[in-house]
Amino acid sequence: MKVLFVCLGNICRSPSAEGVFREISDVETDSAGTAGWHVGKPPYGPMLEAASRRGYEFSDLRARQFTERDFNDFDLIIGMDASNIENIEALRPDGNETPVHLFTDYGATDMTEVPDPYYTRDFDGALDLIERCAEGLKTTIR
Ligand code: 4NP
Predict the structure, then answer these.
(1) Is the pTM of this model over 0.90?
(2) How far does the centroid of ligand 1 lie from the alpha carbon of residue 102, in Å?
(3) Which residues of the chain have pLDDT under 50?
C-alpha cells in the first residue's frame, strides 16, 4: 500500500499530512503539489514550527510536483481540497482507476477541505484537522 498526499504548493498541507501520518502508520507515503512553484524546497517554516510543537518532524521533505505517473506509482491519492482533486483528475491516464479522495472524507467531520494555512495562517487549526483525518485514514486502510 502506498499513499500520496497532494495539495497545491506541497509546502504546507500535504507535507504535514505525510509527516503526521508517517508518525502513526507504517504505510509508505509521499506528498506532492499540483503546482511546481516550490519544487525542491522544504516545508514552510511556520508550518514546521507549529508541527514541531506537537512533536512532528518532517523538515527532511522536499516539494515536488504531482505528475500523471503518480497514478501508477500509488494505490491511493488524497487531496486536501476540491481544487486539488480537480487538478489531480485532469492528469489521470486513460483507463487508470486509482482512487482519489478528499482527506476530510476520513475525518468524520463536516469540513470538506483542509483550509490552506499558507493563506489562513491558522497552522494549528490545519494540524488539528490533519491529525483527525490521519487517524481516520489509518483505521480505514488497516
Ligand atoms: P499548500 O499551501 O498547498 O498547503 O502547500 C500553499 C503554499 C504556497 C502557495 C500556495 C499554497 N503559494 O502560492 O506559494
Answers:
(1) yes
(2) 17
(3) none
